Amino acid sequence: MKFGVKDLVKISIMAALSFLIMLIEFPLPFMPPFLKLDFSEIPAMLIAFSMGPMGGVMVELIKNLLHLLKTSTAGIGELANCVVGVSLVVPVGLIYKWNKSKKGAYAALAAGVVSMTVFASIFNYFVLIPLYAKVLGFPTEAIVAMGGEINHLIVDIKSLIAFGIAPFNLIKAVILAIIVAIIYKRLSPILHK
User: Partner of 79 at 20 to 30 A CA spacing, among 56, 85, 129, 177?
Assistant: First the structure.
């Protein structure tokens, strides 16, 4: 997809806004403390709705490149946020691009919720948790123990995914989808200028 100057300006503004929103994060009760909720995917989702999936991907990428300036995770947290965010915005942008209706918007948001939840679980199990252990020297047992302190059902990596990672991402994606469903039509005229 080819973006014009106006499109690149919108993407840049939304990426900067997304980065600022990302700085405001908080843990959810009954979830492992290293999982923090933020609303920084909202600008990327809005761009995915208005400009298509590649616009949303660019917002995610720029936001996380900016966040590298203050990382405490050797870039692993930013990789996680970017890739999982992309797993949300791509289905949203693709489905809405094919069906620009209220029904299409709801289908796009539902697909994004499912995609993010499933992908985050698989990506954490096979890539992120092993990467944290290898790069940061943080043993997987310690990650599991942090989750187990909050939720007694978390006793190993599989239960961490089932009772920590998956529910967290489901809750986050549903909250983001509801917010975007409420605000998109109101902001649509500005996003399409």
Answer: 177
CA distances from 126 to 40, 71, 120, 122 (A): 24, 22, 10, 6
Distance CA 77, CA 91 (A): 22
* pLDDT 10s digits, 132-180: 999 988 899 999 999 999 999 999 999 999 999 999 999 999 999 999 9
Q: How far is CA 122 from CA 6, 11, 71, 183, in A?
A: 37, 29, 23, 30
Q: Tokens 């992309």 belong to which residue? A: 86
pTM over 0.90: yes
The Cα–Cα gap between 125 and 120 comes to: 8
Residue at 45: amino acid letter: M
| Residue 43: both structure tokens together | 């600008």
DSSP 28: P
